[in-house]
Design brief:
The chain is an alpha/beta fold and 243 residues long. The chain contains eight helices and seven strands. Strand 1, helix 1 and strand 2 form a beta-alpha-beta unit. The N and C termini lie far apart (37 Å). Belongs to the short-chain dehydrogenases/reductases (SDR) family.
Length: 243
């Protein structure tokens, strides 16, 4: 049996990059997976490739109505939800001095509010399933400084994970945060800060970016029953940067 046999999972931002990697591994390990994304073309193509174990749902993760839809469609297709991976995010570089409130609210909605909404709306379904695992993807910038907007939202994801873990433990719902370093994904390759990211490699003790699969292996562990006594914790995969 796979490590996620008979589990139902939602993965946001699942059409490409780390989300796609998580989805592929979850399906290999026996899960039924709803992948959500705003990129309909890539999301539908991935769902078609992975087969009947995967459902694609178009979602703006900052929309409350979209979250209600995602939970309802996932439950009606696969049953009560055991796993939520709040993976969707943007790495837009903002300036405290020059960015507008509109710029700031956009990154806040995608990186932070979406995580709250996902946790809020998945709880009733996880209660039906008599427990579950929520994995919130933060960043090493949720542990140390970086650009305004990105850093503060990733710190918030870390804090929300701890608060929710304490609140939801009595339901058998675990909540943990994952803090990747530099990952070789399309989001990184197309980032406005790609030159700075490339320069960071010299300061990584392992001297390379991570591949998405390396983060997916950690997410799989947290989603599975193998991590049954882990909740409210940060899990760092950064090649040694924070060491």
């Amino acid at each position: 049996m796979g490590r996620l046999e008979n589990k139902v999972a939602i993965i946001t931002g699942g059409a490409q990059g780390m989300g796609e990697s998580h989805a592929r591994l979850f399906v290999e390990e026996g899960a039924k997976v709803a992948i959500t994304d705003i990129d309909v073309e890539k999301g539908q193509a991935l769902a078609k490739e992975l087969g009947e174990s995967v459902l694609f749902i178009k979602q703006d993760v900052s929309s409350e109505d979209d979250w209600k839809k995602v939970i309802q469609e996932t439950e009606s297709t696969f049953g009560p939800i055991n796993i939520l991976v709040n993976n969707a995010g943007v790495s837009t570089v903002l300036s405290t001095e020059h960015s507008s409130l509109e710029d700031y609210k956009r990154i806040l909605g995608i990186n932070q509010i979406s995580v709250f909404l996902g946790m809020h709306y998945v709880i009733p379904s996880m209660k039906k399933a008599q427990g579950g695992s929520i994995v919130n993807i933060s960043s090493i910038n949720g542990m140390n400084g970086g650009a305004i907007g990105y850093t503060d939202t990733k710190f918030a994801v870390r804090g929300m994970s701890k608060a929710a873990a304490k609140e939801l433990a009595h339901y058998g719902i675990r909540v943990n945060s994952v803090h990747p370093g530099v990952i070789n994904t399309p989001m990184v390759q197309h980032s406005e800060a790609f030159d700075q990211i490339q320069a960071m490699i010299d300061f990584i003790p392992l001297k390379r970016m991570a591949e998405p699969q390396e983060i997916s292996n950690l997410v799989l562990f947290l989603a599975s029953d193998e991590s049954s006594y882990s909740t409210g914790s940060e899990f760092i995969a950064d090649g040694g940067i924070l060491a």
